[in-house]
Amino acid sequence: MSSKKIYILCPEDKHPVGGVKQLYRLAFTLNKNGIETYIVHGTKGFKINWFNLNVPIKYFPFLFLKIKSLEKKQSLKNKVKFFLGTLLMDKSLPEKNAIIIYPEVYKKDVYNFLPNDYIIFNQNCYYTFIQFNMLSTDKNNQYSNKNLKGILTVSNDSYNYLKKTFPNTIVERISLGINKTFAYNKSKEKIIAFMPRKLKEDINQIYHILCNNPHFKNWEWQPINNCSEKEVAQILQKSAIFLSFNYNEGFGLPPVEAMACGCYVIGYAGNAGNEYFSDEFSTKIPDRNIIEFVDKLEEIVIKFNENPLSLIDLGKKASLYVQEKYNLEEEENSTLIAINNILKYNEIPL
Questions:
Q1: 267-278: per-residue pLDDT in tens?
Q2: Which residues, 6 or more positions from 240, have their beta carbon under 8 angstroms from its beta carbon?
Q3: Is the pLDDT of residue 302 over 80?
Q4: Regarding beta strands 189-194 and 57-59, do their DSSP bridges make them parallel or antiparallel, or are they unpaired?
Q5: Rounded mean pLDDT of 285-289?
Q6: Which of 70, 250, 275, 300 has a Cα-to-Cα distance from 129 of 20 to 30 A?
């Protein structure tokens, strides 16, 4: 067991969010390998219930109240509300020698609340400056602070973005792994699955252009929304086709999970997905090109209608590719290498 603790600050999302799952996976991997690591929430007793991963949790309500205060305008009313809210609150904070890891989606002043060394787990490089004012020249932020020890990220695209943006900061890439819940299934039905969280306007157009097309007779359009990890896998395992609506993604897990289950994936790569979209077993559509999406999807449906095995075989190829490249062993190894590289670079002993 290491002598230095790691605390991973985690949003309290009650609905499925891939980034939250990866924060938990990071904590799980580090603990498994003897590095004492805690997920940190602000609401005592809060637990994630849409996936099952046993990791130790700590609660620091005062810290999360301060983080939440950044999201509100600092009016007199909000300052009074903040003060009253802290009167009877547990004000304990992580130990000063602990290492903090937090996601890129937090406000850019979070580091001011803690004196700790910290690592930013940037799972989507396109969110890096979402908290920055347009054309601002403010150089005091979490990416320039002396306590920043490194950045973790999850794709080649994000790695290149972050190295270009922060050339003097160590950036390490973790290779994400798909767990065995997303297992291959060759028994495919005429189901087109998709996740409607992003680009709903594109989904709506594609559906209405094709829903009355005779080739799509007997096909079911299956949205995947607010499902547990197990429920998502069950839908993907019986679906012949998965539509990818990746848009400026840090990685884009859903298409890879669909490939693991043997779906034929068609859609947008969202930049990061360029590393796993292959002409051998999937169809990449230029971002937001509705008509090309419609034309290619129609071709794929006709292909399945005429010869289901031709598409099922491609789904098998996709699944084997994912099993080889995005497996849990590779995730664990790359995580340990990334964390150790950051700590060694900064001469921080564990």
A1: 999 999 999 999
A2: 188, 189, 190, 191, 192, 263, 264, 304, 308, 311, 312, 315
A3: yes
A4: unpaired
A5: 96
A6: 275
Question: Which residues, 6 or more positions from 254, have their beta carbon under 8 angstroms from its beta carbon?
Answer: 18, 195, 224, 242, 244, 246
d(CA 269, CA 232): 20
Whole-number Å distance between alpha carbons of 341 and 174: 12
Q: What is the DSSP letter of 104?
A: T
Where does 116-261 have alpha helices with state H? 156-165, 200-210, 229-238, 253-260
> What are the tens digits of pLDDT across the range 92-148?
889 999 999 999 988 767 777 788 999 999 999 999 988 777 777 767 788 988 999
Scan for tokens 């004012």, then name that residue: 133
Q: To which H or E segment does residue 83 belong?
A: helix 76-86
Alpha-carbon distance values, 151 to 72, 80, 103, 154 (Å): 27, 35, 10, 10
Q: What is the pLDDT of residues 206-229, one digit of tens each?
A: 999 999 999 999 999 999 998 989
- Mean pLDDT, the chain, rounded, equals 91
118 near 148, Cβ under 8 Å?
yes
User: What is this structure's pTM?
Assistant: 0.91
112 Cβ neighbours under 8 A, 6+ residues apart: none
Rounded Cα distance between 123 and 57, Å, is 21
- Reported for 95-101, long-range contacts at CB under 8 A and 24+ positions apart, including other chains, are 95/5, 97/4, 98/4, 98/5, 98/6, 98/7, 99/4, 99/5, 99/6, 99/7, 99/149, 99/348, 100/6, 100/7, 100/8, 100/9, 101/6, 101/7, 101/8, 101/9, 101/23, 101/26, 101/152
**pLDDT of 40 higher than 80:** yes
C-alpha triplet 87, 91, 95: angle, nearest 5°: 170
Scored b (16 or more CB within 10 A) or e, 27-63 reads: bbbbbeeebbbbbbbbeeeeebebbeeebebebbbbb
Sequential DSSP letters for 333-345: HHHHHHHHHHHHH
Looking at the DSSP assignment, which residues form a beta bridge with residue 103?
121
What is the phi/psi pair of residue 181, to 5°?
-60, -35
Q: What is the pLDDT of residue 82?
A: 57
